[in-house]
Design a protein that fits this description.
327 residues, 6-stranded parallel beta sheet, 10 helices, 25% strand
């Protein structure tokens, strides 16, 4: 027997249950991973709440963790028991002591990267990789806007931008979060509780505005993001932490300067083994070199059984950077 988190209906954090379960044997081309650290991501709250509904109940939760290979299924060739591994595109159920993962979704975790660093950075780091290196290729000295700069994805984006020699303007909700973003490499910050985002972007760019804005907030920042773009600029909407953007009048893109909007996800950019390996290699290189550091505050490390409290804390916007569940 092992322990995991599951839920039987969509709802708030209290639907998450701590239960015993009998792990299935790894199927053909599957690997059973003993999780050592489990990543908590905002998308997990979307799945739990029903914004991204699951097909069947009861359901596990979570797709990201780092750990050790315990057992391998038939025809597995890349991994052996005892290997240190990390994953972020597994089937739901990573909030668990043991989880079976498809071989093609698993990567060896370099010795220079701890289990906690791996679980705290893999999904978020690959997200930053596709945003800054594929959706729009940010160039050295380029100024761009990135919302929620003190979040888990945001702090990695600040560091990646600095490594690229680019200038990230990060939105934050407090002076403390502004300092965190600046310490991580943000060129400038905007406190959205006190300042007009689009106005400050214009001031910081001497009226030129930005060619690209990355927005994981959604409803609350939609207009501000559009107003921060120069003519023919691109809004990359990749999250909904304030609620989804709905009822869009496409004519507004014309009125504001023939703008472009895209709604990408990691699963649209990493669709096969080759794409996973290329993106992972770039992320691991930056982590191993120290160009990107992922330090999880002790108060943001939760016991696996306390996943409900972890979700409450995450949704309160009281966290900064990454959070973890520890089996």
């Amino acid at each position: 027997m092992a322990k995991r988190i599951q839920f039987n209906a969509h709802g708030g954090p209290d639907v998450l249950q701590w239960i015993d379960f009998e792990p299935a044997d790894p199927a053909e081309n599957e690997i059973q991973v003993e999780n050592k650290a489990i990543g908590i991501n905002y998308i997990d709250t979307y799945v739990r709440s029903g914004l991204y509904p699951v097909g069947n109940f009861p359901s596990g939760l979570g797709t990201e963790a780092a750990g050790v290979v315990k057992r391998i299924g038939k025809n597995v060739t890349r991994f052996t028991p005892g290997d240190r591994v990390v994953y972020c595109q597994a089937a739901l159920g990573a909030y668990s002591e043991l989880h079976n993962v498809a071989e093609d979704r698993l990567m060896l975790l370099p010795d220079a990267i701890s289990f906690e660093q791996g679980a705290a950075s893999f999904l978020k780091g690959l997200t930053v990789q596709y945003l800054l290196r594929q959706t729009y290729k940010v160039k050295p000295d380029e100024i761009f806007l990135f919302h929620a700069a003190a979040g888990g994805v945001g702090l990695i984006a600040c560091q990646w931008a600095k490594a690229l020699g680019a200038h990230l303007i990060g939105t934050v909700g407090s002076a403390d979060k502004a300092q965190l973003a600046k310490n991580s490499g943000a060129w400038a910050t905007i406190n959205y509780r006190e300042e007009n985002i689009a106005q400050r972007v214009s001031e910081l760019t001497e009226g030129k505005k930005v060619a690209v804005a990355y927005d994981s907030v959604g409803k609350d920042t939609w207009e501000a993001s559009l107003d921060s773009l120069r003519r023919q600029g691109l809004l990359v909407s990749f999250g909904n932490s304030s609620g989804p953007v709905t009822g869009i009048d496409l004519g507004i893109l014309n009125k504001k300067g023939s703008l472009f909007v895209t709604r990408p996800s990691l699963f649209g950019y990493i669709t096969n083994r080759e794409e996973l390996e290329i993106a992972s290699a770039e992320l691991f290189s930056l982590l191993a070199s120290g160009a990107i550091k992922v330090d999880v505050p002790e108060q943001q490390k939760f016991a696996l059984k306390d996943a409900s409290q972890a979700h409450k804390t995450l949704e309160s916007r009281a966290t900064h950077g990454s959070s973890l569940l520890i089996p």
